[in-house]
Amino acid sequence: LTLMISITQMGYAQQKSVTNSELSISEITKKINDLGQACWNLRLTHSDSAANLGHQAISLAEKYDILEPIPRISNYLGVVYMHCLHKEKESIPYFQQALELGIQNKDSTSISYAYNNLGDAYLLIGNVPLSKHYSLISLDIFERLQSPLGIAYGYVNMGLVDRIDKAYSSSLVYFKKAIEIRKAAGDKTGIASVTYE
User: Are residues 151 and 180 in contact, defined by beta-carbon separation less than 8 angstroms?
Assistant: First the structure.
């Protein structure tokens, strides 16, 4: 709780000092990134505070027209809404913002995660065809980026989609591929979650 209050106060103090125009663009960018990272770090333990910090980061970035970090932080904020606050429909605009600005900034990593997150969100609200569409796009981009973690996320989404479509053999292949990647990365939590699926 003390950490949560101090981070929230830090965000308020940062906004206050930024408005005094005493900070350089690089210092403002650092504050935006710090708020975004705090959003991600607190997502599981203090989800409401995490969402608040994500909003502060995006507001500050928009105020100073610093667009580069917004796609990443929008993805973070969408994940907070989707998986931590269980507001799947409310997460979608954040992923769409991440996708739009990621394309504008030519940020392939943010684009691939936005597509993956959209696939996840649409699966959770029951739109399996759209989930599959976005999941395939994200998997293709992750493979071109040679991002093992991203590829594993893509395999998990495809495994979930195929399971819902009752393509059980294909679903198992995707899950096993995801487990192999996560074993190579030493990601015990990731291995456990995919094994559960």
Answer: no
pTM of the model: 0.86
Alpha helices in the chain (DSSP H): 2-19, 25-41, 47-63, 70-79, 88-105, 108-124, 128-145, 148-164, 168-185, 188-196
Task: Look at 74 and 22; give whichever has higher pLDDT.
Answer: 74
Q: Burial letters for 52-78: b for 16+ Cβ neighbours within 10 Å, e otherwise?
A: bbbebbbebbeeeebeebbbbbbbbbb
Per-residue model confidence (pLDDT) at position 185: 93
pLDDT band, very low/low/confident/very high, at 51 (cuts 50, 70, 90): very high
Burial (CB count within 10 angstroms: exposed 0-12, middle 13-18, buried 19+), residue 196: exposed
The token pair at 184 is 């190579």
- Alpha carbons 60 and 137: distance in angstroms, whole number: 31
